[in-house]
Amino acid sequence: MDYEKMSDLMKVLGHPVRLQMVEGLIKHECNVNKIMEKLGIPQSTTSQHLALLKNKGIVSLRKEGVKTCYCVTNDLVKRLMAVLTKG
Amino acid sequence: MDYEKMSDLMKVLGHPVRLQMVEGLIKHECNVNKIMEKLGIPQSTTSQHLALLKNKGIVSLRKEGVKTCYCVTNDLVKRLMAVLTKG
DNA sequence: CCGGCTCATTGTAATATTGTAATATTTGGA
DNA sequence: TCCAAATATTACAATATTACAATGAGCCGG
């Protein structure tokens, strides 16, 4: 087991906003505006968290005109979230 | 789902040393000296990480004379680690 | 009671994370 | 081309985390 890599993954999930983002983006993809409205946080903060999730390979994005739609594409993260929501 | 609580849990696992500690302490309980030798880190550092794991309800301890034996008692964490080691 | 062994706590410097405002970029329509 | 909406990036202050040495505290054998 690669502790650096795995702990890095856990660290990204170790923030309430990102955890909520990930939970929502597993259910359905969503653009930045919707996410920031849903979570009630500023646009730059939303964008930064999403950038982090993207860089860690947790979410992927799809451009739809001027909008950017994010969704979770990481299977390991999906399995981890399943454990969290059941427990 | 309590995002604060769950992200807090993930954050604790978001450190390579603690992740390795938890993985080991699921398999068998261990005292501080053994842990620090195994991981090759100073005693105070070891003790601090263990204190954090204890405060977050991830590990429990048992005094055995002058030694302190730690082990993982948190089922949710055990399930999360199972996902990490399989994936 | 003194010694050493085991572990916990504290102090502190270095580093990382976070939140926000300000600014830049990209895109599509008039 | 010019504008506005949507998103990304940057800069920076505030805060949190981290590692380690030093010190403190508890337990036992002699």
Quickly list its features:
homodimer, 87 residues, alpha+beta, three-stranded antiparallel β-sheet, 64% helix, globular, DNA-binding
Written description of the protein model:
2 copies of one chain form a homodimer. The first copy, chain A, is α+β, with helices and mostly antiparallel strands and 87 residues long. Chain A is built from 5 helices and 3 strands, in the order H-H-E-H-H-E-E-H. The first copy, chain A, has helices spanning 3-13, 16-27, 32-39, 43-55, 75-86, and strands at residues 30-31, 59-64, 67-72. A 3-stranded antiparallel beta sheet of chain A has the order 1-3-2. In chain A, a hairpin with a 2-residue loop joins strand 2 and strand 3 (67-72). In chain A, helix 3 packs across helix 4 (43-55). The first copy, chain A, is globular. The mean pLDDT of chain A is 97. Chains A and B meet through helix 1, helix 2 and helix 5 of A and helix 1, helix 2 and helix 5 of B. The structure holds a DNA duplex (30 and 30 nucleotides).
User: How many DSSP E strands of chain A?
Assistant: 3
Tally the helices of chain A.
5
Structural class of chain A: alpha+beta
**Rg estimate of chain A, integer Å:** 13 Å
Strand content of chain A: 15-25%
The quaternary state of the protein chains shown equals homodimer
Chain-averaged pLDDT of chain A: 97
Share of residues in helices of chain A:
55-70%
Can you summarize this structure?
2 copies of one chain form a homodimer. The first copy, chain A, has 87 residues and is α+β, with helices and mostly antiparallel strands.
